[in-house]
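Give me structure tokens for this 447-residue protein.
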Amino acid sequence: MLHSNYPNLDKPVILVPASKHYSLPKGAAILGLGADNMLTVPLDIHGRMDVDELTAAINSCVTNKQPIIAVVAVFGTTEEGCVDPLTSVLSLRNEKRLENVEFAVHGDAAWGGYFAALLWDSSETGTVESPEAGLPMSDYVIEQYKNLQHTDTITIDPHKTGYLPYPAGALCYRNMAMRSLIAFEAPYINTGDDNDTPDELILGTYGIEGSKPGAAAAGVYLSHAAIPLTRQGYGKILGRTILNCKAFHLSLCKASKESEDKDGFIVVPTPKLEDTPVPLFHKLLGKTPKEILSDTTGESLDALRQTGSDLNIITYAFNYKVNGTFNQNLDQVNAFNKLIYDRVSLKADGRDIYNYEILLSTTDFVKEYYGEVFFNDYRNRLLKLDENAPDNPAETRISVMRSTIMDPWITEDINGRPFVEYIVAKLFDIVREVVAEVKENPALLSG
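Here you go.
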């Protein structure tokens, strides 16, 4: 019927950011769309979906008569901790509606959904919206979260930042009628007059899975009953994780500044300092987390809010000096970071896990997926190249460390020193050892 009325339509597509979770192409495969019909939108210099690239992709689809099923905005990319510009995505949808172009907007908040609790205060009459200053989230992130209500669907995984066990997860619809598209009943289970049974109690009707354990759902219910989804509940826990992630970022920058001349290496976090008034950020370098929080002017906390990762994941990489100049060979810098990771990664060699003082994960920024804008900007900062340095086709990936801050207490003082600074100091001790090994045996970087 569709092709008889619109014979010239091309295959439908879904637009996703380059930072997409692997479950999205998996979903496209299950739907029968195929990977070629999930179009990847490159990232901007901040690691978020590039709005200009998205606009160009939508316009291209309209020109080529390709129906757009959905545009996905990620709230908490699992590698960079970024929040995509949902406000701009929704504005694009409203603009295209005037051209009779329609698509769904999906909020992939599997990781970051629970951070919405930071927008709400508890009250005797329920909850009231209160996203004022004092929140650890930046103004940009708050704006995106306030617009989540305008998406068509949202995924959220309590087993992530809800601190709950597998396999707790949810798909939320703004229009509940959308559930009927994936509704299938098992008559041997749902017996009797289902007209008298609430939809949520009919087993296996909605979703891909049929049989699902009830323990995870019960755990979610009990957790929410004990810890409210407000700033005084989950927001208090997750707000501290954001604060701690930003404090970790600050500690990395502080230690890097000290080690650049003293030890000949630096660390470069992916969040750009240009997002923060630079004089304010440099003031923060000399302050502990408690001093920032106790600043009665609010200036220090606001500066911290606007910098660092969007949520509680941060990536970063190290570089070192060769004959007084930072190494500008990306392959060697990648190898250098892999040597560091080898010291801070869990190995199946029988070692007691409690013998590790530092454990990190790692990932690669692949230029083919992320796009040249994000890739080259971060490469230039890491290698200390001019910001207008040309693209190098031979450079295809950047290896980075990844830290997920789930602990609300790492900025607490241990023996009079913030624990986050202790962690960074231990990490930098390991980097010093690797620098010494590389200087003694440069061949370590050739393999």
